Amino acid sequence: MISESDLDQIVAKTHEIGAHKSGLLVLKQNFPNIHFTLCSDDDIINGKPLREYPLFNIYLVNTSEHCAVLTNDADNASGVVIAWRTEDED
After folding, report:
1. The pLDDT value given to residue 89
2. pTM of model > 0.85
3. Lower CB count within 10 Å: N or C terminus of the chain?
């Protein structure tokens, strides 16, 4: 489970530090119980972002089954994908 409060803090921290590799390390240190993945939003073919921002989108991941899947159900989420956006994505 990932709480709304955690998501708000993750988003605020990502706005502060940016959606890049060193920023991901900071998130992992601040939220050790949440698995984080960083990728380009272009890499996500299926799935709707839980939250959308000009520079990045937030997706949730459910790993309760054998394979990880994107979800918008925070109660069953165990991870967060931070997907950076390029300028031509609108």
Report:
1. 52
2. yes
3. C
